[in-house]
Amino acid sequence: MRIKVCGITTVRDGLNIEGMGVDAIGVVVCSGSPRCVTLKRARQIFAALRPATEKVCVTDTMNQNDIHLLLTLKPDTIQLHAPVPVPADAGVKVVRAVEPGDDVGMVCDAVLVDGSRGRGLAYDNGFVHAVMARSSVPVILAGGLDPENVGSAIRALSPCSVDVSSGVEKSPGIKDMKKVREFVRVCREAEA
Q: Do strands 174-175 and 169-171 pair parallel, antiparallel, or not at all (unpaired)?
């Protein structure tokens, strides 16, 4: 099972969290999120990470031009929270975020179940089960996860990956390294 920490806003946090053994680092770009960074900052964060760490651009943009700007960052994955297309020849994986009421049938490489959108609201267990039953691609669990509840969520749902942001923060965009370390520890124990 893979672990992604999202909403990274500094190179230092990215490197510290990467060093804790996470699989992916998410950077929010072209968004109204309080965790949104500039393209320049996103580029700096991605450049500092090891090649093996998955670099994920997260956006809620509806603007196709923004997608082309995100592609200049050379991410491994683009995570979309709006129904905007990514060119088929872009050379990136596409993760589509869905919340209750959304269509799960969109073309993508994985589905992120997230009704929280960085607000710390708990995921809807029934919706997660429904998405897992209908999805032909891997399902990533997000929404209100933190070190206290992620272990039981992994054991109950067996997602391919978990994604955390606000559940390991001191304040929006500022990660609490003790919480991140505990989150990773609990995830690894739960999957064993």
A: antiparallel
Domains along the chain with CATH numbers: 2-191 (3.20.20.70)
Which secondary-structure segment (H or E) carries 139? strand 139-141
> What are the helix (H) ranges across the chain?
11-18, 39-48, 64-71, 125-134, 150-157, 177-191
Q: Please, which pLDDT band fits residue 139 given cuts at 50, 70 and 90?
A: very high
Dist CA 64 CA 50 (whole Å) = 29
DSSP letter string, 74-112: --SEEEESS-----TTS-SEEEEEE-TTS-S-S--SEEE
Give 101-108 contacts, CB < 8 A, sequence gap 24+. 104/131, 104/134, 104/135, 105/134, 108/80, 108/137
Please give the model's pTM, rounded to 2 decimal places.
Answer: 0.94
CA 134 – CA 154 distance, rounded (Å): 19
Q: What are the two backbone dihedrals, phi and then psi, of residue 116, each rounded to the nearest 5 degrees?
A: -90, -40
* DSSP, res 183: H
133 to each of 27, 44, 157, how far by Cα in Å? 29, 39, 11
Summarised one tens digit per residue, pLDDT across range 79-100 is 998 889 999 899 999 999 988 8
